[in-house]
Amino acid sequence: MHPGSKLTLESQIAAIFVASLVAVALFNICIRKVEIRPGSETWHSQSAIGANFTGQVMAKDVSTEDEFILDFHLQDNGDYCHAEMWFIPNDGPFNLEWTESVKLVIRTEGIDKRSIRFHVRHIDEKYYDETVATSMKYNQVTMPITTTTQTYTIPRHCFYVPNWWAEQSKLPIGELNTDMSQVGRIEILTGSHVNEGQGKIVVESIVFSGHWLPSAVFYRSILGIWMVLGGCVIFGRLIETRKRLNAIAAEARQLSEINQGLSAQTRKLSSDALKDSLTGLWNRRGLRPFIDDLEDLQTDHKPHNSIIIFDIDNFKQVNDSRGHLYGDEVLIAIGKLAAQFTSNRVTISRWGGEEFVVLCGGFCKRSAVELANRLRESIASAGAVTCSFGVHEQTPGESFLDALDKADRALYAAKRQGKNLVTAFSVNLVEQRFPNESPTTGGLPVDLQVETPPHNSNV
């Protein structure tokens, strides 16, 4: 890039960075506030006797020019007996949805060590009925009283819709979130179990605060500006890169001869691939590192490592009766099913032909048998073929080949016992030959829509 243009780009980035910092600072300094105070032209206050289902209460509003004051006297107090004062916007429902926090300064007398409830009531035609006092939605928070004078700063997320109102309104659960977009009333009232006798609530101030723009909208805008700038930088770099690529093209032609020599090595590496080309599972070469890890664990005398070997029942008859292409499709399907059981402790490979080996690190014999049974049931439920399984838990110092031989003997025992079984090795197992079985019938798994795969005779 030309030095002059580079300097211009850096200057633009610096200018946008400074502008972003200034915007963030102004965003956090310029806070929107609504204050409810005596003598306000926007709000007026009232007091009420409150609900008296189990008690009696007398209340009166003795507010001054500087404070809202509610004097009350409770008799025969019960759970629902309370005194309250409320504030109503003079010009109809008021939008406080932008609120991020509410600050209240309150003094109390006669209700020590109890609580005060603060309600922001929302009006919506879906549920509001002016003849029903409780039909306005409750955005509620309950504040403990620890001293006679309290300053509460209540974040918006602390408000909640009480369960009793949710049940009463019968609104869908998606509409039971707090809402302050049409506030018709704000209430301050005593909590439950207030002491009998004389009490007083003095509200010095109620202030709703929040940003002029939602924080998410503001910061997304800043992020969008930087993304556009980043796109411009990337586009400029792409143009510069294209010029360099044209210069490299000449060198690429010279490297062509070297690439031809590397092609032979690439083909050799492909033949040594660690994955089975048919099933996508590890082949014998690919399994070797996992076998070494398993034998290292046995050397350290750490117990509970098991080996599972399984193969497809009557697979020769499947190939003879349905053809090798069908047999390949069966192997692919089993590979897909088996791959679902792999984890950081379970490694599955195609050992050869229709045989598969599973290394189970940290599995005792019982856990390995459970895993084998889940895999067996998954294969059998596909409906095309079944598999028989042999399981053996390695003993300390036992080599992989010895353990695999014992698992193989358990596999042959499962074959002798009727196939589609899981058998664990024991000293009583004796290897026997078993007669040829009849061909397996059944349809292909529904997901075997594949191109013609390689022959299944190679791993």
Helix content: 25-40%
CATH topology of the largest domain: Jelly Rolls
Rg is: 39 Å
* Content-based structural category: alpha+beta
Overall shape: it is elongated
Helix run count: 8
Number of domains: 2
Mean pLDDT comes to 79
Largest sheet: 6 strands, antiparallel
* β-strand number: 16
Which class of the largest domain in CATH terms? Mainly Beta
Name the CATH homologous superfamily of the largest domain.
Answer: Galactose-binding lectin
- The succession of helices and strands, N to C, reads HEEEEEEEEEHEEHHEHHEEHEHE
Low-confidence parts, pLDDT < 50 over ≥5 residues? 49-57, 430-459
State the separation between the terminal residues, measured CA to CA. 53 Å
What this model shows, in words?
It is a single chain. The radius of gyration is 39 Å and the shape is elongated. It is built from eight helices and 16 strands. The longest helix is centred in the middle third of the chain and has 57 residues. 36% of the residues lie in helices and 25% in strands. Strands 1, 3, 4, 6, 9 and 11 form a six-stranded antiparallel β-sheet that branches.
Short synopsis of the structure:
By secondary structure, this protein is α+β, with helices and mostly antiparallel strands. The protein contains eight helices and 16 strands. 36% of the residues lie in helices and 25% in strands.
Keywords:
alpha+beta, 459 residues, Alpha-Beta Plaits, 8 helices, 6-stranded antiparallel beta sheet, 5-stranded antiparallel beta sheet, disordered C terminus
